[in-house]
Specification:
The complex is a heterodimer of chains A (182) and B (322).
Chain A (H helix, E strand, L loop, with lengths): L6 E5 L9 H10 L8 E10 L2 E10 L7 H5 L5 E3 L5 E3 L9 H5 L6 E3 L4 E3 L5 H4 L6 H5 L5 E5 L6 H8 L2 E2 L11 E4 L1
Parallel strand pairs in A: 1-10
Antiparallel strand pairs in A: 1-8, 2-3, 4-5, 6-7, 9-10
Chain B lengths: L7 H25 L1 E2 L2 E2 L2 H10 L1 H14 L18 H23 L2 H9 L8 H5 L9 H24 L11 H24 L6 H30 L3 H7 L8 H29 L8 H28 L4
Antiparallel strand pairs in B: 1-2
Helix pairs in contact in B: 1-2, 1-3, 1-7, 1-8, 1-12, 2-4, 3-4, 4-7, 7-8, 8-9, 8-12, 9-11, 11-12
Classes of the chains: A alpha+beta (182), B mainly alpha (322).
The structure holds iron/sulfur cluster (2 copies).
């Protein structure tokens, strides 16, 4: 049997122009109801006129290695696939929202239409067909690189080897798998 | 600040679960304490046995009602996940509620049991089998008390573990929260019994009140000496914890924490109870029981227990890592 994959995403935030194409693509791809989002752009503005600074960090579920959301789920509805993708099995979720509270990244939300908890799936349905997540495919400025960490030939690997990066809130011990290039 | 995910229903449920645990614990303690083969404080034991099941039953109902898909709640009982405090807690609640109900039944007098069973309509299917359940369980009282102890403690502490286990919320992520909730649960239970014994007519049994007061004073003090280390320890901890504590140290929850919980809900009733207890402490007489004061103190303890849950549920959710 082949080694299990480990999917992750590298984000080159400096290329992000806050166009929100990824946000729209995700909503369309995954039928996310109005008012809630599976991904977002964290915008930060600083400095004083005329020297202004703006930074945009796209964020979504980090598909943590050691996901606290999965740990606290009483029914096992939140689970981690072999390939690292963290999912919510809709049929098992009772909507207790414990996982929402346990996620340090506030990546989860309550879906009023399905009455269960929802979040980014890394577009697992597309990935399983060999395609890229919708946000990755859409991004006009090529901020996002998706791939398998265990595959040394992947573009993701090359980026992490050649560039410096950080992850968000490493101190929570969740082992987030969104890598932000510096 | 992020929007709270868990709201008042959860606050109510944490409070009610703890209240039942406390009432049962004190009642069971009074059943277990015996001289000459008889419970020392049978009236507290009985009052507690009759009251204990209801708050937790109401609380569980609220909890289920709060689920996105409440009709799936049975899934909690076909899957057991030891890593999830909610999974452990659901089982604890189920068993505990069962024990409190059997225990209530054991404390019913024969007349009460007969009256209860007489209400079953004649055409209920399986009536004969239900009637066969009308048995005297009086001799089980002490065994039920002992069986219930660990579950009452479990329910009292687990509401705190439920929050404390969430490492993403620094306001909660300490084991002190579990102890604090436990002592608060036991204290609100004791206060509820003081109230219940007060409203009942007839002569007051001073020994009973002396017992309840002693217990409550100890519990309030224990609670207080958990709040202090909680604050001190947090202040000496990492930035995220200090920031979380700033929610009650100058932040939006400051008044609720210091004024309503610590002041009105803990120290004020402690002062009243100590005042009533003073003659005993000084060795100069028996305790006063001023009805108004005693009921105020007990009411404040219960209020404080509620505010504690409120502050923790909401401040905890407002806390996070940056
Ligand atoms: S980011 Fe949150 S929801 Fe996603 S895997 Fe990590 S803990 Fe779970
Ligand atoms: S809301 Fe659903 S996925 Fe989240 S912890 Fe509860 S049962 Fe699990």
């Amino acid at each position: 049997m082949a080694n299990p994959k480990r999917y992750a995403m590298v984000l080159d935030s400096r290329k992000c122009i806050d166009c929100k194409a990824c946000v729209v693509a995700c909503k369309a791809e995954n039928d996310v109801p109005p008012g809630v989002f599976r991904n977002r752009i964290n915008a930060e503005h600083g400095g004083a006129f005329p020297r202004l600074r703006a930074s945009f960090d796209p964020e979504q579920c980090h598909h943590c290695d050691n996901p606290s959301c999965v740990r606290v789920c009483p029914t096992g509805a939140s689970f981690q696939r072999e390939d690292g993708i963290v999912q919510v099995r809709e049929a098992d979720c009772i909507g207790c929202k414990y996982c929402m509270i346990a996620c340090p990244y506030d990546a989860r939300f309550f879906n009023e239409e399905t009455r269960v908890v929802d979040k980014c799936t890394f577009c697992a349905h597309r990935v399983d067909r060999g395609e890229l997540p919708a946000c990755v495919e859409t991004c006009p400025s090529k901020v996002r690189t998706f791939g398998d960490l265990t595959d040394p030939r992947s573009a993701l690997h090359a980026l992490l080897e050649s560039r410096r990066y950080r992850v968000l809130k490493p101190q929570t011990g969740n082992g987030p798998q969104l890598y932000y290039l510096l | 600040m992020r929007e709270p995910v868990w709201e008042f229903l959860i606050v109510n449920y944490l409070f009610l679960g703890g209240l039942s645990a406390g009432i049962f614990f004190v009642s069971a303690f009074c059943t277990w304490l015996q001289t000459d083969g008889k419970p020392v404080y049978p009236r507290i034991a009985r009052t507690g046995a009759l009251l204990a099941p209801w708050p937790v039953a109401l609380g569980s109902f609220l909890l289920i009602f709060d689920l996105g898909k409440w009709w799936r709640f049975w899934k909690l009982f076909v899957i057991f996940r030891w890593e999830s405090p909610m999974s452990i807690g659901s089982w604890l609640l189920l068993v505990f509620t069962g024990i409190t109900l059997v225990n209530l039944f054991a404390w019913l007098t024969e007349d009460e049991r007969n009256a209860l069973f007489a209400r079953i309509p004649a055409r209920t299917p399986g009536r004969a089998r239900i009637l066969a359940l009308n048995r005297d369980l009086g001799s089980w009282k002490r065994r039920l008390a002992m069986l219930g102890f660990p579950f009452a403690i479990g329910v009292g502490i687990y509401t705190g573990v439920l929050l404390g286990a969430v490492q993403a919320r620094p306001f909660w992520n300490t084991n002190l929260v579990a102890q604090l909730f436990l002592f608060s649960a036991l204290s609100t239970g004791t206060a509820a019994l003081i109230l219940a014994r007060m409203v009942e007519k007839g002569p007051r049994d001073l020994a009973e009140f002396r017992f309840l007061y002693t217990l409550d004073i100890c519990l309030i003090l224990l609670e207080f000496f958990i709040v202090l280390p909680y604050l001190i320890h947090g202040q000496l901890s990492v930035l995220a914890v200090r920031e979380a504590l700033s929610l009650v140290l100058g932040g939006p929850f400051t008044f609720i924490f210091w004024g309503l919980f610590l002041g009105a809900g803990l120290l004020l009733p402690l002062a009243i109870e100590l005042w009533e207890f003073k003659p005993v402490l000084m060795g100069s007489g028996t305790l006063h029981i001023t009805r108004g004061l005693a009921m105020t103190a007990a009411g404040l303890v219960i209020f404080g227990g509620y505010v504690l849950r409120y502050v923790f549920v909401f401040a905890g959710q407002a806390s996070g890592f940056r």
